[in-house]
Amino acid sequence: MIGELAKAIRAEAAELTLSGPRARQATNAALAVGVAILAALALRLEDPWWAGISAFVCTQASHPQSLQKGAMRIIGTAVGALAGFILTPWAAYDPLATMLLLFCAGTLAIMGALLSPHGYAWLLGGITAVMVILGALDDPDMALPIAFYRATEIVVGTVVALSMTWLLAPPEGKAPPAAPGWGSLFGPNWHVLSHATRTGTTIAFVPLIWRQLELPNLSQMAISIGAVMAVPVLTGLADADQRAINQRMLQRAAGCAIGGAIGLALQALPLMQLLLPWLMAIMAGTFVAMQVQSGRYGISGLGIQAAVALILTLVQGSGPPSSLLPAIDRLVGMFGAIALLVLVNLLMGPPVTAGSDLEAGRD
């Protein structure tokens, strides 16, 4: 699997281009990320990297595709932030209640992502609720500012991406595939429930592992777990689904390593303390990452994660980075999530085959 990934990376690198539809989408993404970060800095938002990440993720090949993804990202984020704010006081200082909330949010996020026509909104809603709950773990009074700033940062980045694609992207695009719907949960898609509860279980254990091992950035751990488990489609075949999960974990780890290493190397350059070179470096990196994400060799996850890791490494506080420690903490959080997910998958065994539990119940 590692050899296949290395070949795909080399093939994508060989096809990087400065012209054509692929380069046009990459240019849109780079511009959106740059403008979103500047907008977040101008508004003095708490974590401007969220605006940059949202701008990258919502830049699709056409304006309608971006509009659909952006609208679901905004709605899901707003609902998740509100839910996290309302529920956090209920679980404050109660480890079991916190774990239950995280389990429910993680499980619903993945079930919705796989079954609902508005799957991306479900995914963002669950992940945002998890971010708010984890961010206010030691101080419930932080739930409101965390919910407000996360929602605002994501809305700013999304709106910038939609503006760029409206100006520069083609007016037509492919329609998304039809979702199976919730009615199939206890029928043909029973395996989705198993997959979702596995995700919820892993996220629920994040605070426990975080406290025991004193790992940094527990929110990044939970986000990474959700991203890995949010496979586009579950086949219902245990071997195929496990391979898809393994590929996502490998691509996320590789993208994190590549984007993080480039970001850390760039931080060492004196020019990175100046606004324009710093911003141009971020835009250049996201230009390349978007070409990998939209390429034809099946490593879109690596491209997305490389962009995310680069942005998280280079964007700190109110401007260019001043220390390596925040970037290293975020990267450790991402790798810690992958390690925890591997452990839980080993303990819980392979994914459930479609209909297997139902058939066993009938026997």
Structure description:
- This protein has one domain.
- It is built from 15 helices and no strands.
- It is mostly helical and 363 residues long.
- The chain starts with a helix and ends with a helix.
- Mean pLDDT is 83; it is low at 356-363.
- The protein has helices at residues 2-14, 20-42, 49-58, 63-91, 95-115, 119-135, 143-168, 190-204, 206-213, 218-229, 238-267, 275-293, 300-314, 325-348, 356-362.
- The longest helix has 30 residues, at 238-267.
- 74% of the residues lie in helices and 0% in strands.
- α13 (300-314) runs antiparallel to α14 (325-348).
Compute the number of helices. Answer: 15
Percentage of residues in helical conformation? over 70%
Largest sheet properties: none
Helix-strand sequence: HHHHHHHHHHHHHHH
Cα-atom Rg, whole angstroms?
Answer: 20 Å
Distance between the termini: 37 Å
Q: How many separate domains make up the residues?
A: 1
Q: Strand content of the residues, in percent?
A: under 5%
Shape: globular
Could you list the spans in which at least 5 consecutive residues all have pLDDT below 50?
356-363
Number of strands: 0
> Structural class of the helix and strand makeup?
mainly alpha
Q: On the 0-100 scale, what is the average pLDDT?
A: 83
